[in-house]
Design a protein that fits this description.
546 residues, mainly beta, Methylamine Dehydrogenase, Chain H, 5-stranded antiparallel sheet, 4 helices
Length: 546
């Protein structure tokens, strides 16, 4: 063999042996480091969080009704849960009972403080013909949109189905029993005089008035209030405009009274009316309803924040949520003022962008903690809880995930939460078997799965690290209209106003607005029609650092 070739061969063999030795050294060093570092890795909060993401529900719930209250029919793709209320020592739940049955209300029977089965419930909205509040126009009364108590009456509003312009209806009753409901907007007609007011959301009691907000694609959302229950006055310009309508602010989604002020969270359509990706969530408040109120914008999200959902208040802080590309963003403020909001969760709760949003009434306070039901677009909703305590050294509060996958049924895609006789209840939407009323119960192992809150500097690489929604730097904007919209008559009816077959509005001052999006199964917002599809589950890569 040529000496040069032999030398080259010997060199290659030597290098090969050297590589094998180096590789073995790396393996030995790696194993040693693994043994040495395992305690810190195994207790790393990120590991705990990722493990928690696959755990089963640790807070137990029992179903205490027949699914969809037995109304059917199967499938239940058009049946959703709307609104919860405790009135007169009874638990009320509002619903859409399929497009063929419309708005329905169920409540616990007299004396039932802890329902356990269908026999503990009674239906109170439908008449003997099955018509909601005695009105045969099911399309006009598609579902219950809001429930409220005011001056010893229970109030219920209804919403139109899909893109039908028929005007919202509002009914009231002293007892809440079937056959006792009267028309609370008879003086103005459906939609408070405009059929383009398609719904009436999240009624609130403030300063002697009952108020709520509409969806209106023609003038922008309208706020209507009453001090006596039957005579109503518009308390804003459409879309919370200043002296004129802002037509792109189309809908009130949520409301609350906090620190002597009335708040409404709204949806603005952004620059592109037909593209929800740039919709903006805005929060308005007023401190007085006398005359024409002055509304102040106190929070405005980034394009894509979609809408503001008001979650509630805990320990002196008001909590709201908006959307982001990385999932739900929760913020809080000590006074509700502009510039005072700070993000207090990881976007998506645990970094999951599929954790997108809550619904109206999807949050409640019990046992000094705020509970939030979060819609997950690839599985059932998740249940989260915080005591509002800041994580040590950080700006985020501690969150615990108490349950996932719809609390044991992944077809429970949405929920509303309420406390009744010190028990937590979830009123769920289930497109497979129908709505469920779930009551929290004792578990064999009641300790919740903890999804720890990390400080911003602990953010792992696989979790989106978007900054909290930027806050406006400008001074608060006071919206002080100069002219008051038309005020309803002040004459008080002396006899209960019996609901009519169709309540016609008294005037139509605006041309027909563009039709809202037509969503599957009659939902008001296409984003809320969430059907679980296991093929859409996304697995995030895991990067662990000690």
């Amino acid at each position: 063999m040529n000496k040069s070739l032999k030398g080259f061969k010997d060199l290659c063999i030597s290098q090969h042996k050297l590589y094998k030795i180096i590789i073995r050294l790396f393996i030995i060093i790696g194993m040693g480091l693994g043994v040495f570092m395992w305690p810190s890795i195994s207790s790393n909060p990120l590991v705990d969080k990722v493990q928690a993401a696959s755990d089963t529900t640790t807070t137990c719930f029992d179903q205490v009704n027949d699914s969809a209250f037995g109304l059917g029919p199967d499938p239940y793709s058009s049946e959703e849960s709307y609104e919860v209320l405790v009135y007169g020592e009874r638990l009320y739940v509002g619903m859409e009972a399929d497009s063929s049955k419309g708005a329905r209300i169920w409540r616990t029977k007299a004396g039932v403080i802890s329902p356990s089965s269908q026999s503990d419930w009674e239906e109170v909205a439908a008449d003997e013909n099955g018509y909601p509040f005695g009105v045969s126009n099911i399309t006009q009364n598609d579902h219950i949109d809001s429930l409220a108590e005011f001056n010893d009456y229970v109030y219920a509003s209804t919403a139109n189905s899909g893109s039908n312009y028929l005007g919202t209806r509002v009914f009231r009753s002293v007892s809440g029993a079937s056959g006792t409901w009267e028309d609370a907007v008879a003086n103005l007609g459906a939609g408070f005089g405009s059929v383009y007011n398609m719904n009436f959301k999240d009624m609130q009691v403030f300063s002697g008035f009952l108020c709520g907000g509409t969806q209106n694609w023609g003038t922008g959302t309208q706020v209507w209030c009453t001090s006596d229950g039957t005579n109503w006055t518009q308390k804003n310009y459409g879309g919370f405009g200043s002296g004129s309508n802002v037509v792109r602010t189309t809908e009130v989604w949520s409301g609350i009274v906090f620190e002597n002020a009335l708040y409404f969270g709204v949806q603005n359509l952004g620059d592109l009316r037909g593209d929800g990706a740039d919709d903006v969530g805005i929060l308005y408040r007023t401190t007085s309803l006398e005359g024409m109120p002055s509304w102040q914008e106190v929070y405005r999200g980034e394009p894509g924040s979609y809408r503001v959902d008001i979650l509630g208040y805990l320990n002196g802080f008001l909590y709201i949520s908006v959307r982001s590309n990385n999932g739900i963003v929760i913020l809080r403020s000590p006074d509700g003022g502009q510039g005072s909001w700070s993000q207090v969760n990881f976007s998506g709760m645990d970094g999951d962008p599929n954790n997108r949003l809550p619904l109206v009434d999807s949050a409640t306070v019990i046992n000094s903690a705020l509970y939030v039901g979060v819609v997950n677009t690839t599985s059932g909703f998740e249940l989260w809880r915080t005591t509002g305590v800041l994580h040590e050294g950080g700006s985020l509060v501690d969150w615990e995930r108490l349950g996932s996958n719809g609390l044991g049924d992944e077809n429970n895609v949405m929920t509303q939460l309420i406390v009744y006789h010190d028990d937590l209840y979830a009123w769920t939407t289930n497109y497979a078997s129908g709505q469920q009323v779930l009551r929290e119960s004792d578990c064999a192992e009641p300790a919740p799965t903890v999804s720890p809150t990390l400080s911003p500097t602990d953010s792992p690489t696989q979790i989106p690290t978007d900054e909290p929604t930027a806050l406006p730097t400008s001074e608060p904007t006071d919206i002080s209209p100069t002219d008051s919209p038309t005020t309803a008559p002040t004459k008080e009816p002396t006899e209960p106003i019996v609901p009519t077959e169709t309540a016609e509005p008294t005037e139509e001052p605006y041309p027909p607005p563009p039709s809202p999006p037509v969503c599957a199964n009659g939902s008001e917002s296409c984003d809320e029609q969430l059907v679980y599809d296991p093929t859409n589950i996304v697995f995030l890569p895991l990067a662990i650092r000690p």
